[in-house]
From TrEMBL:
InterPro entries: DIOX_N (IPR026992), IPNS-like_FE2OG_OXY (IPR044861), IPNS-like_sf (IPR027443), Iron_ascorbate_oxido_reductase (IPR050231), Oxoglu/Fe-dep_dioxygenase_dom (IPR005123). The keyword Transferase does not apply. It catalyses: gibberellin A1 + 2-oxoglutarate + O2 = gibberellin A8 + succinate + CO2. It comes from the Eukaryota. GO terms for molecular function: gibberellin 2-beta-dioxygenase activity; metal ion binding. It holds the Pfam family DIOX_N. Its EC number is 1.14.11.13. GO terms for biological process: coumarin biosynthetic process; gibberellin metabolic process; response to molecule of fungal origin. Belongs to the iron/ascorbate-dependent oxidoreductase family. GA2OX subfamily. This is gibberellin 2beta-dioxygenase. The keyword Cytoplasm does not apply. Keywords: Dioxygenase, Iron, Metal-binding, Oxidoreductase. Residues 165-283 form the Fe2OG dioxygenase domain.
């Protein structure tokens, strides 16, 4: 596993640390082991040589930028985020706020074209091609996860997001620079690492992603941080040519806690606009998220009870962004 060089960050609660980088051109047996190791230790890694065309990525970025450059009224025609549609500063339904605007779409061609009606045909086609490409990447990674865990059915995880009824979604977040009039907030910005020196504004608050796997791509503006197992925040330098992968709560449950969903957040940038695009791979609503039998043994007793993605999603939307919702589904001894 290639580990990136140390990332300095001037805050007591963050520390310098490398994050795993997975080269998808390596041979399968090496790859599957590296992916499982990274998913156990961090629940997060960067993938390089991912095979997604640079043109597909840049066209989607252009469509996203064009959408956010429209007037508020025009953007609102994509519908209020209930949860799908255009949202500004409000995240979810329970009072969470962030310094961003976003568009959240169901990740299937019919819904994308329906929600995109008020935007453009180009937006719809481009987003569809992008979503298909990152979905294929997510499936490939999930097959490698199954191989690395030595599970017989290699498609045990990927088939959940390949299912026609998969509840996957796609989100574009747009974080404008913070224009502060508060002189106590220094407009410090570390160009070298593209992150705020003093994190004073939350772009997107601390949380874990509820789904199986998230594939994130951002422009060259930083702000993303992941929380290490010992509770320290690690700034992730942006890389617009590569993808970052997050293990979600559903994969943590399916693997009986062996792979961990990673808590992360985005700090607002004082100077530049960050734009990120996330594909959240999710199962169908009626899919069971109980730990797969291969992950349960006398040394590793069942951690979570039987529950469906639909039940979990209801819990997700009834709670706050930062809540530890998977704890509600722990097995009673
Ligand atoms: C505050 C909320 C927004 C969110 C649903 C929730 O009640 C808690 C989880 C949030 C989250 C985080 C990851 C994804 O961005 C998201 C789409 C998801 O599935 O869970 C968002 C939800 C949202 O913005 O609707
Ligand atoms: O915008 C980002 O970089 C990450 C946002 C995020 O974590 C999310 O939308 O779930
Ligand atoms: Fe997230």
């Amino acid at each position: 596993m290639v580990v990136s060089s140390a990332i300095p960050f001037r805050s007591k609660k963050t520390r310098a640390l490398g994050i795993p980088i997975i080269d998808l051109s390596l041979d399968r047996s090496q790859l599957s082991e590296q992916i499982v190791k990274a998913s156990e230790e961090y629940g997060f890694f960067k993938v390089v040589n991912h095979g997604v065309s640079a043109d597909v990525i840049s066209r989607t970025e252009t469509e996203g930028s064009e959408f956010f450059s429209k007037s508020l009224l025009e953007k609102q025609r994509a519908g209020p985020a209930t949860p799908f549609g255009y949202g500004c500063k409000n995240i979810g339904f329970n009072g969470d706020k962030g310094e961003l605007e976003y568009i959240l779409l169901e990740a299937n061609p019919q819904s994308i074209s329906e929600t995109s009606k008020s935007i453009s045909n180009n937006f719809s086609c481009t987003v569809n091609v992008y979503v298909q490409a990152v979905k294929d990447l997510a499936c490939e990674i999930l097959d490698l996860v199954a191989e690395g865990l030595r599970v017989k059915d290699k498609s045990i995880f990927s088939k959940l997001i390949k299912d026609v009824n998969s509840d996957s979604c796609f989100r574009i977040n747009h974080y404008p620079p913070i224009r502060t009039t508060d002189s106590s907030v220094p407009n410090l910005f570390d160009e070298q690492y593209s992150c705020n020196v003093k994190p004073t504004h939350i772009g997107f608050g601390e949380h874990s992603d509820p789904q199986i796997l998230t594939i994130l791509r951002s422009n060259d503006v930083g702000g993303l941080q992941i929380c290490s197992r010992d509770g320290l925040w690690i700034p992730i330098p942006p890389d617009s040519n590569q993808f970052f992968v997050f293990v979600g709560d559903a994969l943590q449950a399916l693997t009986n806690g062996r792979l961990v969903s990673v808590r992360h957040r985005v700090l607002a940038n004082h100077v530049k606009t960050r734009m990120s695009m996330m594909y959240f791979g999710a199962p169908p609503l009626d899919a069971c998220l109980s730990p797969i039998p291969q992950m349960i043994s006398s040394q590793n007793p069942r951690l979570y009870r039987h529950f469906t993605w639909g039940e979990y999603k209801n819990a997700v939307y009834s709670l706050r962004l930062a809540d530890h919702r998977l704890d509600l589904f722990k097995n009673q001894p």
